[in-house]
Amino acid sequence: MNESAELPLDGIKVIEFSHMVMGPSAGLLLADLGAQVTKIEPISGDNTRRLKGSGAGYFSMYNRNKRSICVDLKSEAGNSLAKKLVSTADVLIENFRPGAMDKLGYGYDELSADNPRLIYCSARGFLNGPYEHRTALDEVAQMMGGLAYMTGLPGRPMRAGASVIDVSGGMFAAIAILAALQMRHQTGRGQQVASSLYESTVFLMGQHMAQQAVSGQPAQPMSIRTAAWSIYDIFNSKDEQQVFVAVVSDTQWRLICEHFDLKELADDESLATNAERVLQRERIIPIVQEQFSRFTKAELMSKLETCGLPFAGVGKPADLFDDPHLLQSGGLLDVTIPGGEATRLPALPIQMDGKRLGVRRDIPAQGQDIDEVLKEAGFSGDEIAELITSGVVAAAPSD
Q1: Which CATH superfamily, name and number, covers 4-205+330-389?
Q2: Of 100, 313, 315, 318, which is the most exposed, with the fewest CB atoms less than 10 Å away?
Q3: From CA 11, how far away is CA 215, in angstroms rounded?
């Protein structure tokens, strides 16, 4: 499924003014689903391209299937050019600090006056309310919303090991955009929509809020939580590897006892139900660990798979490049990262008509699509050359 004509958002034009993760991830979702996404970068290029350390992969991960142009939005000609592109767009995505787009003349009221069908999506730190003018980051939201508290040890909050709130915010942005497109079918008009980091975190914390409401007790960090099941743990194998194993039903309890020769536990009537087993976790876990220690990681996982128990080897991101399931199922996509090196990165975690969504456009070089985008917008070759010469737009990189 690599041709846009086969994809659900074919024909939808998106202009993306965004950087980092939240806005670009929303654009990525629409792009992979077939929308024509044009990323408008500053004249010097998106700073995200130049991040190092833990941010080094942001641009490569969230910008495939997009076109790139670099425009001086502070110049009069650049401002007019960008507005011309927006005038024929279906969707605009932005994730800049509050008020930044309005100062540049790209606020919703101004742009929708020229294009009333425009769906204008702001990926923000906070939705409307007392915090709305604050600047936020993924980690800020994780700290405020309780995710860092739930992830870390008591007294040592820790952010999750991926940009889960940025990406969740991008997902909710895409959902809002799709809902607004559906409403436009009915009304003929666009609207302004927004998603946010803080409220995305709060939504994820809803299960823990509900837990408190139901139990009357505040949720404890996951590192010290009261287990809901008797076996829901990481175990060591004979070759000193780690495997997570879960037993979440009475049927699974009987399976683990049968396949791992746990007769002592199987015959104990005081362990007949999960509620009873949870009370005896301190007795059960060492016995199970002793049995598991007889097997290497590979042997243990093979046996767990045979008996149908939930299990997982404790993996690292590096392991995913060669994961046989991902390789055979189309879960990894071939892309070329900045610098020209080929690699594989994750596809969207969905199937449509039994197929995975692929790459139609590789990760764009900085400003590489200037000629295509401007000619499509009605500019002549001479006009494009003048815009480049005057510094309004950046020339496409030479091969």
Answers
A1: Crotonobetainyl-coa:carnitine coa-transferase; domain 1 (3.40.50.10540)
A2: 318
A3: 50
